[in-house]
Amino acid sequence: MSEHDHTHRPDEVHEGETPEEAAARYRAEEEALIAETSEGVQGLRSRTTTSAGELRQEVGAVLRLPEGGYVDPADIDIERRDDETTIINMGPQHPSTHGVLRLMLELDGETILRTKPIIGYLHTGMEKQGEELTYVQGSTNVTRMDYLSPLHNELVFSLAAEALLDVEMPPRATWIRMLMVELNRVSSHLLWVATNGGDLGSTSMLIYGFREREMVLAFFEKATGLRMNTNYIRPGGVAADLPDGWEDDIEIICETILARTYEYDELITGQPIFRERTEAVGNISAEEALALSVTGPILRSTGVPWDLRRTMPYLAYDKLDFDVIVGTYGDNFDRYSVRLNEIRESIKMIRQIAHMMPPGDFRVQDRKVTPPPRARIDESMEALIHHFKIFTEGFRVPEGEVYVAVESPRGELGCYMVSDGTSKPFRMHIRAPSFVNLQALPLLLRGGTMADAVAVISSVDPVMGEVDR
Amino acid sequence: MGADRARRRAGGHATVTGTTPTTAPVASPASVLPEVPRLPDRLVDQLAFPRRETYKQMVAAFRAAGFELCADLCAVDYLSHPGRSLPVGVSAERFEVVVNLLSLSARQRVRIRVQVPESDPTVDSIVDVYPGADSMEREAFDMVGIIFGGHPDMTRILMPEDWEGHPLRKDYGVGRVPVQFKEAPGPR
């Protein structure tokens, strides 16, 4: 790279070279440098080479007029000349992009005009992998997608497989699942509050959020054996019953974290610097959010009370008493308060679940779906055969297709599953909320300043493992 | 849940609409929409099987009928599973584009499955109806190779730009890394 370090001036003329040759050499060097870092047509290109339709999307013009057209092309300054603006690159190794998100931004001074997220740096072909794994193995695969809420991924995968299998879940399995995913929501939102604080310069918030999250993860370790990627919720129930004394652990977690959320209030909610950095930054309206298929806290921050736990209940959420938290302005601060208050709502739910936890089996007692207890294998030939069949061949799932969605901490997490009657899914597509929510970034960033970009990216809460899958 | 399961078993779990004739110039929402009874069972989605030519029209009709959000769009390659069950009048093709629409006001989902032939894997883009379908269509193009006509930026999204092939096609092999079980022979 030494020849590209620009210690020489572009018009510097080497020995034995005419100025024209020097200019040509410099152009060639510059083009080589661009080619080396280019994403090709995936990247953000100059205005002159971008089609009008793409340009509109990059500036985030999504609103439809009543008659069905896009809003106001005159609002988009397509006539702006390229030499007035700068295209810069942010990421994929930027610390505040929460993973390997790469953004190309067109700036006019400090103001962001266009944004294009470039993703795929973490793509590991998990949907393809899902077609190669049996339903028994599948939950180990999906749990690695959204690594901050692994239990939601396992849940949606298991619900889809069970919908095709048509098995009836024992009530205790349903309630254990609900308990675990709500705990997971708390830990995911805590991590978000922490990193959002960190992105805005409040490093003490970063430490506190991680500290509280660790309590939840310690409970996960106790109940499932692992802090993350637990493979706890499986088709047919959960892997194990809750550990002895879980009620006490849950009560300690709820009490501590609930008290700590009020400490966060004191630390950052009312803090003038935090308010300045978040209020009226990165606004989105309800119509825009719906047009862009944005779900979860971002949609709720615009005032749309859409939460699948309430509006299309799954598991046993219809038996719980909780509020759907909504914002008003759809700015960074609303997204912060929606998430912070959802921690409190989740704790309210966890307490109710712990109170109402029914006794019984923690998984389906159908030997074609779940393995027999370990002790039975020693005494029953049939149990041994079932055990062997489940872990070698897996269970066969009737032919069909189904779409199941749950409310993950980031929005609607869906699983579209097609079965051809074998023991492996024919197609397993995960509708990842972060992947879809990232489309709102150009709109959220447009017209804002470069300094706010970090705050806005953080408030979208993208998890790149899920975006790229 | 028990009652839902029973209803599902009883078979009435989806209202299947036939294909709308292509001769109809512009279909009004009523003629394109499947009959959407307000099912108490929300686990169950409506299904619709438009022809490729009327697909976008049907999506627009659903949009007008109050399906505010395009929840999901993906493509499936049925190469190794051609005998799937489809309603009468829908001929199975190799590819299928599956769109899940969501109505917040009616709390209802609808799933649109459109058949796309192998010889001409193109289908209309619905980006100007649902701007949120943008990256989902790019993903379907990248992974399965469906070309969405009218999409402003039909480029790969997850794979590198110069990648060959579409990984989620059934004739695309799974990558494998050879595993060495023995110690590698030393240099001497």
Strand content of chain B: 15-25%
Strand order of the largest sheet of chain B: 1-4-3-2
CATH superfamily of chain A: Cytochrome-c3 Hydrogenase, chain B
Name of the CATH architecture of the domain at 13-22 and 40-149 in chain B: 2-Layer Sandwich
How much helicity do the residues of chain B have? 10-25%
Stated plainly, the CATH topology of the domain at 13-22 and 40-149 in chain B is called: Beta Polymerase, domain 2
Counted by DSSP, the helix tally of chain B is 4
The most extensive contact between chains is: A-B, 56 and 55 residues
pLDDT under 50 segments of chain A (min length 5)?
Answer: 1-8, 64-73
Radius of gyration of chain B over all CA atoms, rounded: 20 Å
Helix/strand class of chain A: mainly alpha
Cα distance, first to last residue of chain B? 68 Å
Query: What order do the helices and strands of chain B follow?
Result: HHEHEEEEHE
Would you state the CATH class of the domain at 13-22 and 40-149 in chain B?
Alpha Beta
CATH architecture of chain A: Orthogonal Bundle
How many alpha or pi helices of chain A? 19
Largest sheet of chain A: 3 strands, antiparallel
Overview of this protein structure:
The complex is a heterodimer of chains A (469) and B (188). The two termini of chain A are 33 Å apart. Chain A contains 19 helices and eight strands. The longest helix of chain A has 29 residues, at 171-199. Mean pLDDT of chain A is 83; it is low at 1-8 and 64-73. Helix content of chain A is 48%, strand content 10%. Chain A is mainly alpha-helical and 469 residues long. Chain A has a single domain, classed as Cytochrome-c3 Hydrogenase, chain B, CATH 1.10.645.10. Chain B has 188 residues and is of the alpha/beta class. Chain B has a domain at 13-22 and 40-149: Beta Polymerase, domain 2. In chain B, strand 5 (122-124), helix 4 and strand 6 (147-149) form a beta-alpha-beta unit. The longest helix of chain B has 11 residues, at 134-144. Chain B starts with a helix and ends in a 39-residue tail after the last strand. Residues 1-42 of chain B have low confidence and may be disordered.
